[in-house]
Amino acid sequence: MNDLPRQMVHFPIGDRLFNYRVAGIALRQGHVLICREDDDDYVMLPGGRVEMGEPSTLALERELAEELQSPATIGRLAYTVENFFRHEGRMVHELGAYYLIELPVDYPFRSGGVVRETEDAGMRLQFEWIDLAGDGLAERHLRPRFMIEKLRRIPPVAEHVIFHEGHV
Q: Is 110 helix (H, G, I), strand (E, B) or coil?
């Protein structure tokens, strides 16, 4: 048994930051599940940071159980992403693994509106199903923003994306 403290793969270096994140793509009846953290002006796919020495699939399973307060079945990898963006004055280099996931059939579902609200690590999280065909993802400022189109056409095999958002 490893008795070392948990260490997220999240390293600030001066005004820069490296982050390793996993996220789940939950699709149901033409909708995708999104998450808003606290009162952010953007939303993201549910997930979180990977811990040092933790496989990405186990990290996602752990993060979803903590955030959604529900088990999830981790499916195949849909995207690996190298995402470069600015956040809170820092240049962020984020490596992301985006997996298809299945939630239990009894996980709350309705189009629009918060279906579950939880707290994780002192942050308030709100989950909502958004129609993939409409403008809901753009209106809610899904990040990374290129993911709006990617969610509408999931590739048959994993795809690698390198994305620079704005000027970094």
A: coil
